[in-house]
Amino acid sequence: MTKSRSIQERNFGLWLLLPAILLTGACIFIPIVRSVALSFFDGRLETMSRGQVWKGIGNYQAIFKGGTILHSLTVTVLFAAAVTTAMFVVGLALAMLLNTKIQGQRILRSLALLPWVTPTVISALLWSWIFQAQYGLANYLLLKFGILQRPIAWTSDIHWALPTVMVAAFWRDLPFMFLMMLAGLQSIPAEMYEAATIDGAGPVTSFFHITIPFLRNVIRTTVLLAIINNFKQFPLFWTMTGGGPVDRTTTLAVLTYKEAFVNLDFGTAAAVSSIWLVLLVAVTLAYTRIFGVSERE
């Protein structure tokens, strides 16, 4: 009787969740299916008004033929890898620093969160002004201390445009990494470090044998979210550089936007977004698999 009642209660709970599951699934999968389907049609605005024209893999051939997709993919991967790595290293170091008892700890923690609560577009405008060629703070300081001999047009220079967006993205999202690492550090029992000290373990040994193992799940989740967020970064690129100069900062997100709303070719944009989706899913699966193997070992 008890087992039967338990099954009924579980089924009742599933029925209550079913509408939410169906609605969420529809909001996620229907746009994906429609986007993938559109990638096989001629999506130019002037032809769509006369009806859909089957194009097969023509859109995919077009983006691969010119090398546009490969260049954008390279920029995206480079950006995501560099920013995520910097966020993890600095975020963990900052979390360890503010996890100790230092003067003004609460104020420093609050200040560290300011970039994260700043809207992304505002952050982009702020860093655009800092890197402005004539009156920007970056050029002013570097010229004043003799590091530069002449001003640099940071956001329009083919060598410096991507690094400037990386700096802005790092500043904008560092608090997220810091906050997650700090929460993980505070969950580690102090007794573990005390026991390690009694056994003669130094700070480096404690870091690699206590801190990192206890933070493994936090690191896995946080770094994955950072990779996904940096992979789909758009506002910073579009506001600061517009994808230029000469496509040096054209990521997959920027390329999708340009094809859809600048070139008015929604079919090609759908093809780019489909490749982008497959790549992101592949990266996520590979990442979780690597972490799963390391945990079993």
Task: Note the topology.
Layout: H1 2-38, H2 45-48, H3 58-65, H4 68-98, H5 105-112, H6 114-117, H7 120-130, H8 137-144, H9 161-186, H10 190-198, H11 203-214, H12 216-231, H13 235-240, H14 252-262, H15 266-296
Helix pairs in contact: 1-15, 3-15, 4-9, 4-12, 4-14, 7-9, 9-12, 12-15, 14-15
Describe the protein's architecture and organization.
- It is built from 15 helices and no strands.
- It is an all-alpha fold.
- The chain has a single domain (66-296), classed as MetI-like (MetI-like fold).
- The chain starts with a helix and ends with a helix.
How would you concisely characterize the structure shown here?
The chain has 297 residues and is mainly α. 75% of the residues lie in helices and 0% in strands. The protein is flat and about 75 Å long.
Give keywords.
297 residues; single chain; MetI-like fold; 15 helices; mainly alpha
Radius of gyration: 24 Å
Helix-strand pattern, N to C? HHHHHHHHHHHHHHH
CATH superfamily grouping: MetI-like
In terms of per-residue confidence, which ranges show pLDDT below 50 for 5 or more consecutive residues? none
Shape: flat
Helix segment tally? 15
Q: Per CATH, what is the topology?
A: MetI-like fold
Tally the beta strands.
0
Q: Describe the main β-sheet briefly.
A: none
CATH class type: Mainly Alpha
The number of domains is: 1
